[in-house]
Amino acid sequence: MNPLTYEKATSSTDALERHDGDAAKFLGAGTNLVDLMREGIATPTRLIDVTGLAQSIEEQSDGGLRIGAGVSNTAVAEDATVRAQYPALSRAILAGASAQIRNMATVGGNILQRTRCSYFYDVAGSRCNKRSPGEGCDAIGGFNRAHGILGVSDSCIATHPSDMAVALSLYDAVINVESDEGTRSIPINDFYVLPEDTPDIENQLNPGELIVSVDLPAPSANRRATYRKVRDRASYAFALVSVAGSLIIKDGLVVDAGISLGGVAPKPWRAIEAEAAIVGSPPTEETFRNAAQIALADATTQPGNVFKTELAQRVIVAVLQDLAGDAQ
Amino acid sequence: MTIEINNRPYDLPDDARISLLDFMRERLEFFGSKKGCNQGACGACTVLVDGERILSCLALAAQYDGRSVTTIEGVANGDELHPLQALFVEHEGMQCGYCTPGQIMSGIALKSELERGAPSNVSSDLTVAPRLSRDEIKERLSGNLCRCGAHNGIIDAVAAYVGGEEQ
């Protein structure tokens, strides 16, 4: 049995001082880490509880919103400003997990949750390059209905499971982190790194760095946004495909468009080229179909997830049509 | 390090590994909360912490120092059933009964979530309090699975609890 100690940090500075190397781990609500420890995937010997920290949601002088890393998913989804100004974020969180888990889970923990690839969790029975670098990937050639089609590699086709992060990607959120060396801010769209041949490295966070908050830029006037999630059952399941979308329409033309995809990639997948193809065009089905094709042009599928390319295109079109319809 | 469970204080375990669920069941013999999947997928271990529902299987007991937990053992008033317990009997919201404690704890929390105007995934307008409907109740109970398939009776019981008998 591995030794394990638990301590509760009183501040972010205190948490950073307590973090003394690879054997230490910051602990949020544990909704993923407890599972990872039980399965022998995460093997910390020192847990530093940061759930009591960074509990506020504060409007910023620039009109943006700062959400503490320790705020529960429920509190973010229910926040009046989030519901009114960042509805895709509220919807994305409400589409994820269950009320019980959302009550526990923190913003920081949600961002850092690991993939739900079943081969990743099957320590005894499956090869996984993310869990044991260089071992091989049994998802490729295996049961890969849930796996990724964009940004994947020959060594890993796992997806990032978060709904919340897809909406944060749409809103160009910035993740603020602290370490012994000071603070830095990382746009969420740069935060996650693609697997290539090192799928064990998932993001830019260095050992001992702590996420302390997430900043949402000031909301844009007349921007409509929403989140739609498609899954194997109506609720309480991870996404097969999800889309966070936004539009600003002025004088019959789209002046701003946002598309971020979940369930299809190792990170929230911002479809920048597809967005650019919409801007300046009328908000028609044809415009959106063209953009959806651009968004999925580089898809590489497995036999089990080949359906995701067309499904993602259809959900993109449906989301944008809904937003365009609402605007009229 | 103490935790309150059903209004009585208990010393928390020294072992950081023990979940709130295992602590309650194996050390304190509160057997009401069930260990279904032990990985956050079934909801059978649902309890209230300071009035909010959580999954006790994914909670490390050590993290709940100073908090107040309510389990199914704590909802009745002596021999008098909690109103939602009585409605589960009336609407036959169970078959084998294994998921029932979690369902009832979820139902109790669900009512207060609705009363504070919390939106859900099926709420059409995020800016107003959600309108009570069967779809709202189904969505809000989706974190509690029933392998007997007693969901219709469960939803009937919770609907009666949150909306009055006419629901």
- CATH C-level label of the domain at 224-327 in chain A: Alpha Beta
Strand content of chain B: 5-15%
Helix content of chain A: 25-40%
Q: What assembly state would you assign to the polypeptide chains in this entry?
A: heterodimer
Order of helices and strands of chain A: EHEHEEEHHHHHHHEEHEEEEEHHH
Q: Specify the structural class of chain A.
A: alpha+beta
Briefly note the CATH topology name of the largest domain in chain B: DNA polymerase, domain 1
The gyration radius over C-alpha positions of chain A equals 20 Å
Straight-line distance between termini of chain B: 44 Å
Mean pLDDT of chain A: 97
| Largest sheet: spatial strand order of chain B | 2-1-5-3-4
Biggest beta sheet summary of chain A: 5 strands, antiparallel
SS elements, strand count of chain B: 5
Radius of gyration of chain B: 16 Å
Low-pLDDT stretches of chain A are none
Main sheet properties of chain B? 5 strands, mixed
H and E order of chain B: EEHEEEHHHH
Q: Count the helices of chain A. How many?
A: 13
Strand fraction band of chain A?
15-25%
Protein name (chain B): (2Fe-2S)-binding protein
Pfam family, one (chain B): Fer2_2
GO molecular function (chain B): 2 iron, 2 sulfur cluster binding; metal ion binding; oxidoreductase activity, acting on the aldehyde or oxo group of donors
InterPro entries (chain B): 2Fe-2S-bd, 2Fe-2S-bd_dom_sf, 2Fe-2S_ferredoxin-like_sf, 2Fe-2S_ferredoxin-type, 2Fe2S_fd_BS, Aldehyde_Oxdr_Iron-Sulfur, Beta-grasp_dom_sf
